[in-house]
Amino acid sequence: MRLVFVVFLLATVSQASDWKQLFDGKDLNGWQMVGPGRFVVESGMLKTEGGMGLLWYTGQTFGHSIIRVVFKTASPNANSGVYIRFPEPPKDPWYAVHNGYEVQIDAGGDEWHCTGSLYSLSKVIKRNQKPAGEWNTMDITIDGQKTTVKLNGEVVNTFVGSQTVPERHAWYEPIRGPRPDSGYIGLQNHDGTSTVYFKEVAVKPE
After folding, report:
1. What single string gives the DSSP state of each residue in 4-18?
2. How many domains does the chain have?
3. Are 82 and 94 in contact (CB under 8 A)?
4. pLDDT tens-digit profile of 127-141?
5. In this structure, how many other beta carbons lie within 10 angstroms of the beta carbon of residue 120?
6. What is the pLDDT of residue 13?
7. CATH value at residue 156
8. Quick check: bond before 45 cis, omega within 30?
9. What is the pLDDT of residues 38-71, one digit of tens each?
10. DSSP alpha helix (H) spans, the chain
11. Nearest C-alpha neighbor of 49 from the set 186, 187, 200, 199
12. Residue 55 belongs to what domain range?
């Protein structure tokens, strides 16, 4: 029995160590801000302030991996997002919009613009965000041209880059077109009335 417990414990530690933490809960080391607004570190969490800005991870690009963010919103309509697949260091926040994908965070949006959607490109198949003030875990799997989004353990969106997408209707919606298999990632601070907290941003090879 003791041997079984030790093996289980080692396996658990190994699985935990597979995740590389990109935010240490202390400072913004390894991250860079572009655009208005800012992210601040408060009680071990990243907190959005103002917008529309982009906090992006400068250390490396990511492909064939799972990006995990653990977040909560301060109000039902608080807006943010996780950017993936943008190929170059951004000079402004709109670069990530038009050259990557935004995995939306917004409980108040419709199925094309709510939490777990690829903003205006791929709608969710279900809503699974917890109420404001409760923590959510979002896992975004990047596998070649396929993107899969899990929210609180359930798949809410699967998108392949070659599939048909809706026509673009507004200037702020992403320019349609292919995205690379890998790229930089970032977090959005959307506006001065939206407050979103992140306590974990991590990556694991797929």
Report:
1. HHHHHHHHHHHHHHT
2. 1
3. no
4. 999 999 999 999 999
5. 22
6. 41
7. 2.60.120.560
8. no
9. 999 999 999 999 989 999 999 999 999 999 999 9
10. 2-17, 94-99
11. 187
12. 2-205
**pTM, to two decimals:** 0.91
**Using CA atoms, how far apart are residues 194 and 47, in angstroms rounded to an integer?**
10
Residue 204 CA to chain centroid, in angstroms? 14
- Using an 8 Å Cβ cutoff, are 60 and 30 in contact? no
Query: SS3 of 206, please?
Result: coil
pLDDT at 6 over 50: no
Q: Which residues pair with 34 in a beta bridge?
A: 54
Pick from 44, 59, 72, 48: nearest CA to 137 = 72
| Spatial distance between the Cα atoms of 48 and 65, rounded to a whole number of angstroms | 25
Whole-angstrom distance between the N-terminal and C-terminal Cα of the chain? 32
Paired tokens of 35: 């655009």
Closest CA to 151 of 71, 79, 44: 71
Q: How far is CA 58 from the centre of its chain?
A: 15
Residue range 74-107, pLDDT digits in tens: 999 999 999 999 999 999 999 999 999 999 999 9
* Residue with the two structure tokens 């699967």: 158
Local confidence band at 206 (pLDDT 50, 70, 90 cut-offs): confident
Q: Which of 100, 94, 143, 145 is nearest to 118 (CA)?
A: 100
